[in-house]
Specification:
The complex is a heterohexamer of chains A (191), B (195), C (286), D (210), E (443) and F (335). Chain A has nine helices and no strands. Chain A has 191 residues and is mainly alpha-helical. The longest helix of chain E is centred in the middle third of the chain and has 24 residues. Chain E is globular and about 60 Å long. Classes of the chains: A mainly alpha (191), B mainly alpha (195), C alpha+beta (286), D alpha+beta (210), E alpha/beta (443), F mainly alpha (335). At the E-F interface, helix 5, strand 15, strand 16, helix 8 and helix 9 of E face strand 1 and helix 1 of F. Bound molecules: flavin mononucleotide (3 copies), riboflavin, iron/sulfur cluster (SF4) (4 copies) and FE2/S2 (inorganic) cluster (FES).
Amino acid sequence: MEYVLIVISAIFVNNIVLSQFLGICPFLGVSKKISTGIGMTGAVTFVMVIATIVTFFIQKAVLEPFGVEYLQTITFILVIASLVQLVEIILKKVSPPLYQALGVFLPLITTNCAILGVAILALGLEDTNIVKSVVFAMSHAVGFGLALVTFAGIREQLDLMDVPKGMRGTPIALVVAGLLALAFMGFAGIV
Amino acid sequence: MNQWNNFSKGFFKENAVFTLLLGMCPTLGVTSSAFDGLGMGLATTFVLVMANLVIALIKNLIPDKVRIPAFIVVIATFVTIVEMTMQAYLPDLFESLGLFIPLIVVNCLVLGRAEAFASKNNIGSSIIDGLGMGLGFAMALTILGALREILGSGKVFGTMIFPEDYGMLVFVLAPGAFIALGYLIAFINHVKKEA
Amino acid sequence: MNVVLITIISLGVLGTLAAIILYFVAQKFKVFEDPRIDQVEEVLPAANCGGCGFPGCRAFAEAMVKSDDISDLNCPVGGAETMSAAAGILGKEVAAAAPTVAVVRCNGTCDNRPKVTNYDGATSCTIASSLYGGDTGCSDGCYGLGECVDACNFDAMYMDEKTGLPVIIEDNCVSCGACVDACPKDIIELRKKGPKSRRIFVSCVNKDKGAPAKKACSVACISCKKCQKACPFEAITIENNLAYIHDDKCKLCRKCVSECPTNAIHELNFPPKKPKVEKVVPENAE
Amino acid sequence: MAKTESTLKNMVLTLLVITGVAGASLGFMFELTKGPIEAAKKAKQQAAITEVVPGFNNNPADEVYELKSKEGFDLKFFPAKKDGKLIGIAIESMTTKGFSGKIKVMVGLKPDGTIINYQILEHKETPGLGTKMADWFKTDKGNQSVLGKHPKNNNLTVSKDGGEVDAITAATISSRAFLDAVRVAFETYNENKDNQPVADNTSVEEGGSL
Amino acid sequence: MLKTFSLGGVHPAENKFSAGKKIETLPVPEQVSVPIAQHIGAPSEPVVKKGDEVKVGQLIAKSTGFVSTNIHSPVSGKVFKVDDILDASGYKRKAIIIKVEGDEWDENINRNADLVTDITLSKEEIVKKVGEAGIVGLGGATFPAHVKLSVPPGKTCDVLILNAVECEPYLTSDHQLMMEKGEEIMVGTQILMKALDVTKAIIGIENNKKDAIDHMSNLAQKYDGITIEALKVQYPQGGEKQLIDACIQRQIPSGKLPIEVGAVVQNVGTTYAVYEAVQKNKPLFERIVTVTGKSVSKPSNFLTRVGTPVSALINAAGGLPEDTGKVIGGGPMMGKALSSIEVPVTKGSSGILIMPDKIAKRGTMEPCIRCSKCVSVCPMGLSPYLLMTVSDKAIWDRAEEEKIMDCIECGSCSYTCPASRPLLDYIRLGKGKVGNIMRSRNK
Amino acid sequence: MNTLTVSPSPHVHSGDSVKKNMYGVIIALLPALAASVYYFGLGALIVTMAAVISCVFFEWAIQKYLLKTNPTVLDGSAALTGLLLAFNMPTNLPIWIIIIGSLVAIGIGKMSFGGLGNNIFNPALVGRVFLLISFPVQMTLWPKPSENMTNYLDATTGATPLSVMKEGLANGESVSSLMAKIPSLSELFFGNLGGSAGEVAAVALLIGLVYMLIRKIITWHIPVSIIATVAVFSGILNLASPEQFAGPLFHILTGGLMLGAIFMATDYVSSPMANKGMIIFGIGIGVITVVIRVFGAYPEGVSFAILIMNGFVPLIDKYVKPKRFGEVVKTAGKK
Ligand SMILES: Cc1cc2nc3c(=O)[nH]c(=O)nc-3n(C[C@H](O)[C@H](O)[C@H](O)COP(=O)(O)O)c2cc1C
Ligand SMILES: Cc1cc2nc3c(=O)[nH]c(=O)nc-3n(C[C@H](O)[C@H](O)[C@H](O)COP(=O)(O)O)c2cc1C
Ligand SMILES: Cc1cc2nc3c(=O)[nH]c(=O)nc-3n(C[C@H](O)[C@H](O)[C@H](O)COP(=O)(O)O)c2cc1C
Ligand SMILES: Cc1cc2nc3c(=O)[nH]c(=O)nc-3n(C[C@H](O)[C@H](O)[C@H](O)CO)c2cc1C
Ligand code: SF4
Ligand code: SF4
Ligand code: SF4
Ligand code: SF4
Ligand code: FES
């Protein structure tokens, strides 16, 4: 039950983009087409889960025992940055098609605060353990994907419509994001 | 480049929020009041200036392959410094900015400037660039914060402008953040076109 | 132990680890991508207009890097300057393409060419062309529905409300050819810009014989061949009842212009003719 | 100055140096701010205690002790004494029934259990709705205020549930949660009244009788 | 419940003013202009030149390929010239112009009106005859009939469907033809069945022609394998894909021909022409044309020689009404607006519809309100609103993905759209572009 | 001779128009308007007038002064948005809030996207949810029916059946004891319950539905799929635990379900195009509605459910296409 609640909360109620304001840059940046949105979701899920696992161990094995929790930010981001680069280099060689699909998004992920944010938030869970953290990260990634793909769908549609000049591009995208967030507030209080 | 232009571009022409769309998370996440927006903006400015400074200083020493990790370490260091300082001397602000302080590290603005400007320019220009971009960012956040605060609760910087009963709560919440920024950008685009 | 020490050590170890791993992985999984593609892309105008025939500037850059002979590649927007810059990066030669500009070859204004039907379909020249030859007696001329104007990405065209014909703003035209492709009637042509932007061309595409052509439009080419006879350089040919001036042969002597009984030959950017001076314009005498 | 090459040695060296310098400066910063951070935390706690049980002249933070509530929360008790006499107790209470989970409240009780004052320490309620609890239950308007009320003598639940406290408009959930935190504080205090830690035996005896 | 096709469809006001009007033979005009491109496929090649004498039914232009056909002189007289004239396509195209002199027919033509029921020719001979006689589909598409009768190797045909639906409002030529030449159509059907080697033929007739259904049903009893299918009135039932779906519940897959599902569709007029060609040796040079319209004083069905100017028909029907806005070649849903009434009648002209100014005017276009009415009426299950948008924005790959090429151009979408959007205009544009793209890709 | 007009086919038109559809819906809403005036009196009229007038005004003003296009307010869509917005609000709402709601509905919900036909979200619901979140107090004070014929702002208020149920269940009461506190099902059907202006009389809304179906303004897919989904889903919950979850009829007859299913989810612009898509859309709305009502913080979830599903419409439209001709190669046999 607890896991179900984590999943529902992460996807709908506390959607990482629409209610927690994390990962807005890729949300706005790579949402012009559904296909790129799906690619980005794949890349984010991948990195988010791995990063959460690695940072979990760093926290438990290094930072806490030595009492240097204040190094959280710097170590986590270092790990994430290296991880992203690693994944990129390996993918490029090992699976060019996958790299074509995800690779272009990888550099963007380093500066996606959703990754670092989720890694930090996962540690703040009650009675946190590795499985819970992974479920947490995975659900947030799904929530990110849900918001991103829906949003990309809307933007693709808007491309076919006559949005007034002044609102075209970012402004209307933000308004749509706002209205999506407004709609998602209906889920408030489920968990 | 003319240093004044270098400085002022961050406010309008290349404003991080209004035109480059960088650093959107804090922009939306911490602007439920003008004060928080200002605080976040200044914290980011500090990191930006210092990071630009250091990176401009050491740019030639860093091999390309580890450029990004190295930059990130530099940035993260300053972020942690800000984090600790704020915790010590501005605990209330620290609390309301919450998670977004460590997230300055990944603010695309900071890394973006480091990559795009500081790693290519000299120290003086880099500092000025950082200051301009940072203050421009702070300005944007403050404006957005003030807008949301006044619409949401009738206050600016905590001072009552009109009775709270008339405030529209949405603007304090997530949807209002997006919507307010959307129209703010539309407005600024419009002004820019006229200018 | 001292916190500072722990800090330094843990960070140091982490950093070193990151560097070493990255190094070896990078070595092992090296993939080569020609860095010149980026460089070339940088000098291109980033208009992504497709005027070069490739889907966007990057594709063009790739093509430039890949092909040995780049003489038939041209970015019309950037022009010779861009091309030589790009060629410089690649150490290749470019044949300097003569700059061209779009011209509208129809002068069937509302006055010159009376309407015989009402068009009541969608505002699109191509749609109208699938229906018929147009609302006037000339079935080759301009529909005046402005599809070319919509196609132009460079604000180089507008529809003249009075004449109902498109007009090219030469200064803005980058000769991308989008309008040429858009027009269902091949009315627009890219012609050599000519010295001082001077150009002479037949502003008509009507392929009817003389009498019906004249009936449909008072300024139509009636294929009377007078211009052809007048041209000292054999620059004019007549095919399908229509005269055409070849811009590679035309020396801009302007003899044909005055010959044309319907004023179908247009000259652009010449100084107003002094009355009765029958001399070749000096700078064109080669 | 020439650009450094991407050789292994250079890469490792650079990162090592950078992280080393970063570590050194951070460690130094940490040492520097450790004190002030602690102080800031203390100051905050102190301010809260002062607000909810004013008038003491001991240092309640020194005499703090912890008790477990029925719900399993660890509550901190700060005895406030004036000249050695217990004048009240500040209890760091909490509840998880808030609209968005946990709410932490510092509740000040007179030794007999009457509510002196409270301060919200930590919460995630919705701004503009739940956040109103910071002042709502102190405001003397209608039946909003809980100050001066006694959890046993007064029915401290929201009027919707039959109690005598007006809930924050449109935030009944937060109101319930707040009152729940107050109840937790009072009940834990009340149950353990008889076996309070040794340090304060006497004082409890004196003021403890209802 | 009457059968009909399974998706979409509309039911515009029928307005069949000329229904029941006897077929009148239009007098031969003084001069005819016979375009050399009257059919789908390569234009024919003129075999006469200026000054040549020609007889009625004489070959004047010959087929230039498999998908092409012969053209025969509709009159006797002298070739005046071969020149470009404005025809129904709206463009100037080549035509053979003949000045009429006398009425001398080719001697091979059997001008006797008696019914000839015995089919003496073999399968192959029939197809050859149909090809030589210049017969094209008279249902509107003018596709050379012999091509359809040559079932490609590997495919089999098991049913012939006669298209007697005439689903277009106003038009009555097929209806009247069935009433007057039903017997001939039956024989024609037998000929086609023989040519296609099938034992089953279905004649699909919409239920608004009850007299024709009764008449044909009576006649069909005498002929083996021919059944009459009464169909619910629903436009575009006459579209062959829809007709096959309605009659035998088989759907032709996207981009495929009827033969894919074992069917061949011929119009009843075509069938009559086949009868005349095979039994009477008469090539196709005249046809029945309905002249009609709300303000037309004498709506009629005329037997007209190809090449007759439209104005001659209009005069015979009482002249051009004052309030004329549009003159349409064909029906109101699929017909083509003519830019001049001097254009000649061709093999494919099924009707001349004269529409008053008021009705002819299109409504002002409004934004699409996404009411999905166009989607629900599209007989091909397409999304016309989307096809229009992507065509307008030139997103061709999307248009192809959305199967723009499946559109049969029936116009149901434009007819229905409450926002008066010119959906089909843009879809046609898109079809043109996408078709070109697909063709150049296949090269 | 007359100049001939030339245009591509088809040359005839059904005569249907945007206006006819919009005014058709307005006519279909008249019974509900009558019912709400009958139950709430003056307030219902004031709120409706205010919303309609301000929506029409804002649309006109924005088109004229901001977008600088020709105002098209006469097409009736703005008036309809106003009417539906009003039908979603308590009948004692202060006029200034109504005006803000209209501005949000038209300005943000509709014109920012380019006006009629372009909006992704249902404008009236954008307005309503915006207000609900901004002014939770005013938006949840429901006047009691039949007691406030001439009162407007100071009407006596009461809870809607849904909030009685929600509060009660939250406090551990059982469904059966709560059902006794709310009007009977037949009263719910004829509208004697607290609620927003337009949602009170199910029967009036059903009359509107029948009218719209007959005039072919809408098809059955969306309303039926929503109502059926709610019935099934709440039925299952009810069967599983009758004292914890109210039954299907309660859910169908209370709150804005009927109004939403019949008039708001069916909004052309913000609903899917293909029939299959409409059914998916309806099921989505039904499920989300029940989830919010039963598990969420809000007693009522129809508005949110419709808005959420509005967001998914582009995806639905992209991946759920109408059934294409020729997809099934052989359908020989029956039918
Ligand atoms: C996004 C959102 C945030 C909310 N935040 C709170 C909150 O912080 N505290 C609260 O008590 N109710 C909050 N509510 C309202 C509750 O859902 C619930 O409607 C309310 O508590 C019922 O109280 P009432 O009976 O006073 O209206 C929120 C609702 C939503 C939709
Ligand atoms: C929308 C549409 C409607 C049609 N309506 C008819 C019709 O009413 N009668 C008819 O004979 N052909 C009609 N056709 C033409 C038929 O599809 C088909 O071409 C014809 O029946 C084949 O016979 P034919 O080659 O003998 O003309 C229609 C075509 C389309 C696309
Ligand atoms: C390019 C083209 C090729 C065709 N090829 C054949 C063919 O090989 N066999 C055949 O029976 N019909 C063929 N047809 C005829 C069509 O099936 C159809 O009868 C004709 O297009 C008229 O139908 P419609 O009026 O419904 O459009 C072809 C049509 C076209 C346009
Ligand atoms: C059946 C139908 C239902 C409608 N429902 C709504 C609605 O719920 N909200 C609204 O603002 N407009 C509604 N409209 C009006 C119109 O479609 C709406 O204003 C557009 O969304 C504006 O672009 C409806 C129109 C029709 C035809
Ligand atoms: S006028 Fe034609 S050629 Fe010139 S820029 Fe415009 S589209 Fe290109
Ligand atoms: S030149 Fe061609 S495209 Fe331009 S308006 Fe004329 S017909 Fe249309
Ligand atoms: S014209 Fe094409 S898109 Fe329109 S209804 Fe007919 S088949 Fe469908
Ligand atoms: S019928 Fe017209 S308004 Fe309706 S969806 Fe189709 S194009 Fe849009
Ligand atoms: S600031 Fe959060 S992703 Fe850029």
